[in-house]
């Protein structure tokens, strides 16, 4: 083990070997004399299905893994005791078995700084697109003179003085609140993990879970996906919403019961939805929600800008370099790993060799 070895998800390169994301700076890794990196390139790209599960042994010769998509399971964690870090590009970690990482002495990190502004901007973009009926008006324009007059039947929904409900007001949610301020909306929020005083400082009125559904003119889903939030937005809570209200989700698809959402939209119990994420990704061509013309989709990619990729990758690299130098990296998800003897021995070993 002469060098600190970093594995990169195969999503970072195209089939022809060229960079998938030219904005990311591989020089951050190449500049380190004690580090070498390689791609795990024989997995389906941009896929989190069963075929994308990391196979036992694939990470046995690596110290760190920078992952984009793919799935990191208990079998992946057992693949090699040498692995000390899984650095996830993004803030979602529903594709990673967190408990298995902790038990194996592997730190899991995410990139909250890199995603904060781009994802918040994506949320605002979806709100504007769906309430302004942007795609409908795009289709009318492409229909030429015969359809131009139909614009009168598709008035947008103004935001000034309306109520934005935030389901989750953490890293991204708080930034979205800052960005939406010029629209002069009243902002209410439900987040059991954020102190009411912190919400108040952002200009957000703390409300109960059912109240945020009942009062929102636009409901923004910004919470993480976990056992508590799976299908948090279900038929019962959707029924609380105003028929003139809009749902916007830039978090994770399974937070919303998609079948219940389709039923509400078809019945006119909800005006529309802006969805960066879906319950099943990628969706089947016959998914009922794809037939609805009052939904705007963005392929779980609206926030995927050159700046997001560059900043998140740099954040991943900083985590890897911290571990290589025997330091605790920032943004660790599984804080309990810090008490794991196996993890501490790995970190001490790196400190002795590379720091």
Give your account of this protein's structure.
- The two termini are 15 Å apart.
- Helix 4 crosses helix 7 (171-180) and helix 4 (112-131) packs antiparallel against helix 12.
- The chain is 33% helix and 14% strand.
- It has two domains: 4-110 and 305-354, NAD(P)-binding Rossmann-like Domain (Rossmann fold), CATH 3.40.50.720; 114-297, NAD(P)-binding Rossmann-like Domain (Rossmann fold).
- It has 355 residues and is α/β, with parallel strands linked by helices.
- Helix 8 (196-202) links the parallel strand 7 (186-190) and strand 8 (204-206).
- The protein is globular.
- The chain is built from 13 helices and twelve strands.
- The strands form two sheets. Strands 8-7-6-9-10-11-12 form a seven-stranded parallel β-sheet, with helices on both faces.
Average pLDDT level: 94
- The ordered string of helix (H) and strand (E) elements is EHEEHEHEHHHEHEHEHEHEHEEHH
**The CATH architecture of the largest domain:** 3-Layer(aba) Sandwich
The CATH superfamily title of the largest domain = NAD(P)-binding Rossmann-like Domain
**Mind summarizing the main beta sheet?**
7 strands, parallel
Strands in their spatial order, largest beta sheet: 8-7-6-9-10-11-12
Number of distinct helices: 13
Unreliable segments of 5+ consecutive residues: none
Rg over CA atoms, rounded to whole Å, is 22 Å
Number of strands: 12
End-to-end C-alpha gap: 15 Å
CATH secondary-structure class of the largest domain = Alpha Beta
Q: What is the CATH topology of the largest domain?
A: Rossmann fold
Helix content: 25-40%
């Amino acid at each position: 083990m002469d060098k600190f070895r970093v594995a990169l998800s195969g999503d970072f390169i195209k089939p022809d070997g060229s960079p998938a994301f030219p904005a990311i700076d591989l020089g951050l890794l190449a500049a380190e004399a004690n580090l070498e990196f390689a791609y795990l390139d024989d997995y389906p790209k941009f896929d989190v299905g069963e075929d994308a599960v990391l196979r036992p042994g694939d990470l046995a010769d690596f110290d760190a893994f920078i992952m984009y998509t793919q799935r990191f399971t208990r079998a992946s964690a057992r693949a090699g005791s040498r692995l000390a870090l899984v650095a996830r590009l993004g803030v979602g970690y529903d594709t990673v078995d967190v408990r298995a990482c902790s038990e194996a002495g592997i730190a899991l990190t995410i990139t909250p700084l890199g995603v904060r502004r781009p994802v918040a901007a994506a949320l605002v973009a979806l709100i504007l697109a769906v309430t302004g009926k942007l795609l409908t008006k795009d289709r009318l324009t492409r229909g030429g003179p015969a359809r131009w007059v139909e614009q009168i039947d598709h008035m947008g929904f103004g935001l000034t003085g309306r109520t934005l409900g935030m389901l989750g007001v953490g890293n991204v949610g708080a930034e979205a609140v800052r960005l939406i301020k010029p629209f002069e909306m009243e902002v209410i929020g439900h987040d059991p993990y954020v102190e009411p005083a912190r919400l108040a400082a952002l200009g957000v009125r703390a409300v109960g879970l059912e109240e945020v559904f009942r009062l929102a003119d636009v409901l923004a889903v910004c919470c993480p996906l976990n056992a508590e939030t799976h299908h948090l937005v279900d038929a019962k809570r959707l029924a609380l919403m105003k028929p003139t209200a809009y749902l916007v989700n830039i978090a994770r698809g399974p937070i919303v019961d998609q079948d219940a959402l389709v039923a509400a939209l078809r019945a006119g119990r909800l005006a529309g939805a802006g969805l960066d994420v879906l319950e099943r990704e990628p969706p089947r061509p016959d998914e009922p929600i794809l037939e609805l013309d009052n939904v705007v989709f963005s392929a779980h990619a609206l926030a995927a800008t050159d700046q997001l990729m560059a900043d998140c990758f740099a954040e991943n690299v900083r985590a890897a370099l911290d571990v290589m130098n025997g330091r605790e990296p920032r943004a660790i998800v599984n804080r309990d790993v810090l008490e794991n003897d196996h993890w501490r021995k790995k970190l001490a070993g790196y400190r002795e060799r590379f720091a």
